[in-house]
Design goal:
Elements: H1 7-74, H2 89-106, H3 108-128, H4 137-154, E1 167-170, H5 178-188, E2 194-201, H6 210-222, E3 228-234, H7 237-247, E4 257-261, H8 271-286, E5 290-295, H9 303-306, H10 322-329, H11 333-340, E6 356-360, H12 368-377, E7 386-392, H13 398-411, E8 418-422, H14 431-441, E9 445-446, H15 453-462, E10 467-468, H16 469-474, H17 476-492, E11 498-502, H18 512-523, E12 530-534
Parallel strand pairs: 1-2, 1-4, 2-3, 4-5, 6-7, 6-11, 7-8, 9-10, 11-12
Antiparallel strand pairs: 5-12
Length: about 550
């Protein structure tokens, strides 16, 4: 016992120590219990907050899986072969519907949030368009719909109200003639069919690479041109076009217009190339197709800019050697992909502003010459352009002809800014322009005066594209009209954005070189694109009462 302290003091001191120890122990347990209960309550609160989202995500997954099974079943895809013996597409659909209902019954706001996230993800994937092919059931469903609608169209007779310009465009490789692709795409996008035809000239050793075809389609998609692409081998342009006219399209989705580029180097090329080119136009008319020939001042071929060798369907004058064709067909895939990524901007991709579209309607072709400008002005780039129509008339009846034409256009519901009557088309052309035309056909003329009759006939038979003196005299008046019409076009359409001229009617007694000279004369001397166009005499527009 400590000195100076009694027994009572010691006992009291020990009791205080015990009480303090007990107090601290009880306090620690209370504090720890309070903290544990608070933390547990917080965790339960946090879990209850996200539980509806987790449940809705699971239910949404079940709904999507069940609906995917149902959708894959109704598309009748041969690749969908479920192994479960008791599988039924209707049970899968029932499971999808029940899952959606349960989502809203559990928590409606979480269900809405889940659907919002799913729609956002779907839109993001659709916008990015990753280069991945999942083999989705949507693709199978699209095929079924396209097949069904195509078959249903085949049993319906054509009507003028439903006419659409369906174009077979002889582009060669589309990346080499982007202006031709852009022009046709301007009035066919979301309206009608467009097919880019690539005729590979060469022997049987030429190879058509599937990779090149894929790259051409990819290039068209990147350029936002809605078009098909088809390639075939042929010994000539005429033969290849004949095959394309017979095989392109399906059912009612078949081309009714052939669009081609102008042969700018026809004078430097071989006469066989001219004959082949003009006979292609003849065959198109014979097969009841309309024909459009597009000419641009700088030409259509941009192969020099891309620095690559391709099949030049329209620009090559001499025969293509088989080695060049084999070199093109077996070109490196990586180089082709790099070329496919090239996007050269053309005049048809720019806004035309208030420049005019001038239509020289020389003869009635069923209305195709007037329909194409109308379709162009529906596009954003051409919306401000004004259409002017030029017709041939006489001075005495000029005002009556103008009013009659305006009334007819109004009945056709075509927005035409002005109608101009050409009263001076019968005047003789200028001497310098006549000499230019004569210089064009002189290299292709058979000089009968310096040859005897038998030799001249043999030469004409061996070279049917050549022009005799008798043919020149018989068609002189028509030739002078073409020269005079070109003078009027150059005078009135200096600032036009596009000029459309009626394509001359092909004649059996007109040599191909003379017809080519007519096309050259009509479209020369203009800085804007010129479209020589002619329908197949089929009516493409209708009045209100029809």
């Amino acid at each position: 016992m400590p000195l100076g302290k009694t027994t009572h003091d010691v006992i009291t001191h020990d009791a205080l120590l015990c009480f303090q120890s007990l107090y601290l122990s009880i306090t620690d347990e209370v504090i720890y219990g309070f903290i544990s209960k608070t933390h547990q309550s917080f965790r339960e609160t946090e879990l209850n907050t996200i539980a509806p989202l987790i449940s809705n995500f699971f239910l949404c997954s079940y709904a999507l899986i069940n609906f995917s099974c149902f959708h894959a079943s109704i598309t009748n895809s041969p690749g969908w072969r479920p192994l479960f013996r008791y599988y039924s597409p209707w049970i899968a659909l029932f499971g999808a519907v029940i899952s959606v209902i349960l989502m809203f019954l559990l928590t409606w706001w979480a269900a809405l949030l889940t659907f919002g996230i799913i729609i956002f993800l779907f839109g993001y994937v659709a916008y990015k368009k990753p280069e991945v092919n999942w083999g989705s059931s949507i693709q199978a469903s699209t095929y079924n719909m396209a097949l069904s609608y195509t078959l249903s169209l085949a049993g319906v007779e054509d009507h003028v109200k439903n006419y659409r310009p369906q174009c077979l465009v002889l582009t060669g490789a589309p990346i080499m003639r982007p202006a031709l692709v852009d022009f046709v795409g301007s009035f066919t996008k979301n309206v009608s069919l467009m097919i880019c035809g690539d005729i590979l000239l060469g022997d049987e050793k030429s190879v058509m690479s599937q990779h090149n075809t894929t790259n051409m389609v990819k290039w068209l998609n990147q350029r936002k041109v809605r078009s098909f692409y088809t390639a075939l081998k042929a010994s000539s342009l005429r033969e290849g076009t004949q095959h394309l006219l017979k095989t392109s399209g399906l059912g009612k989705l078949k081309p009714n217009i052939v669009v081609m580029g102008f042969k700018t180097n026809w004078q430097e090329g071989t006469p066989h190339g001219i004959d082949d080119y003009i006979n292609t136009i003849y065959d198109s008319f014979d097969s009841n197709h309309g024909v459009c020939v597009l000419r641009m001042m700088g030409g259509l071929d941009v192969s020099d800019e891309l620095q690559t060798e391709v099949n030049l369907t329209f620009e090559i004058g001499e025969a293509i050697e088989s080695e060049q064709q084999n070199s093109y067909a077996t070109s490196d895939i990586d180089d082709t992909k790099n070329i496919a990524n090239e996007q050269i901007k053309t005049v048809f991709q720019t806004i035309q502003g208030k420049n005019t579209i001038d239509v020289y309607w020389i003869s009635d072709d069923g209305g195709l010459t007037l329909l194409v400008p109308y379709l162009l002005t529906r596009r954003k780039r051409w919306r401000q352009s004004k259409v002017r129509v030029f017709i041939i008339g006489k001075q005495q009846t000029m005002e009556e002809d103008r009013k009659e034409m305006m009334n007819m256009l109004q009945r056709f519901r075509l927005d035409v800014h002005d109608v101009i009557v050409m009263t001076d088309s019968e005047q003789p052309p200028l001497a310098k322009n006549t000499r230019r035309f004569e210089d064009l056909i002189t290299p292709f003329t058979v000089n009968e005066r310096q040859l005897d009759e038998r030799t001249a006939q043999e030469q004409k038979k061996a070279c049917p594209w050549k022009v005799t003196d008798k043919e020149r005299e018989a068609l002189r008046l028509k030739s002078e009209r073409k020269v005079r019409l070109n003078e009027i076009i150059r005078k009135n359409s200096k600032n036009a954005a596009l000029v459309l001229v009626s394509l001359p009617v092909p004649q059996a007694d007109c040599p191909s070189s003379l017809y080519m000279a007519w096309l050259d004369t009509l479209s020369c001397g203009l800085h804007c694109p010129v479209l020589l166009i002619r329908g197949n005499q089929q009516n493409v527009m209708t009045f209100y009462c029809q």
